[in-house]
Amino acid sequence: MRVQRTALVVAGAAALAACGAATPSPTGSPISPTTGSPASTASPTQAEASFEPLLVAFSAGSSGPGMLMLASGQTTAPMPSGPIIGGYGTLTISGTLGARLIGTDGREGSSSGPLSMVAVSSDGTITTLEQNVAGSPSVVGRDDGQAWAWAVQTNSPACGTSTRAAFDIFTDDGDGARKIGSASFGAGVTHVGLVAWTAAGIVASGDNSCGGPADPSTLVISPAIIIDPATGAATGLAPRIGTNCDFEAIVDDGTIACALHGSVPAIRVIASDGKQTDHSIPGLTSPQCINGGVQLSPDASFAAVSLLCHTGGPRLVLLDIASGHVVTVIGASNLAPTVWTQDDILIATEFGVDKTYAVATSGTATLINATYAAQTSVG
Prior knowledge:
Shape: globular
Number of domains: 1
Helix content: under 10%
Structural class: mainly beta
């Protein structure tokens, strides 16, 4: 299973201008299958536990801290605050950890003191996973919920320098933390973050904040590295996905989705054997059109993509990876993907109205919570 963090962004004038005009069409098609060399990745044995993803949910009409929500749409408890420092709660949520959420607490704002890594259960209970973690760790939970990883940067280059952004990687499966290795990104990267941990490995992505407010990153493509959690060996993903494709998602069998740049933008899917297929998506006129990321279903059968560059406003589409057929989701508008469940149901959030939907692979959206909008990270 792959649960990807979601950042919902409402389109501004600059983003829409970059997208250009779009012509809607009911279907898409694979553009060009090619074959690449599969990256060497770990294949650890992970138990296939059955669980319902836990989410955080917010409502503009509520003055509270938000709620915890199951993927069924049921709210279970108020969002905990974590330790209160300076009058503010310190809990941040980085993503999912099986049936729980994972994040950090104990640090106020941008202060530099140590913090704790924590898990949040559906009843609001906070469990400490690691204490006194130094630096500013980027935290990710393994999809089965049985282990977690974090990266701590050891070198954060200034903008415009050729210095590499280096980081250490740590993991813990409940038997104690261990450093598994170190890695680095090349010139232009100033910030490193972990974005996924599936049976295929741990993925880190590099970025920077050297641009202006409208487009903070100056990188055309954000590089990605996959790390073997058993050995700590780090392998760049560019040879596998292409130097002009932004990593978006990975699932247990090693299938990867990335956003292809160039004159014909597309969603590229790289199978576990290294075969690349570029899928055209009606309305995808620029990678900047993608809102909320590309989400792969756990069995790599479908990809969900929310598009901003569309004459009728934002829309959510589902790509059938085997056939290349694209279906526009009906039953709600202005949706962005939040998380796939283990049984291939997409949980999606509606912009501006604080509603959450369950989307079948047929493309039909069903309202599951009319009060709260779900997401996978906060803080």
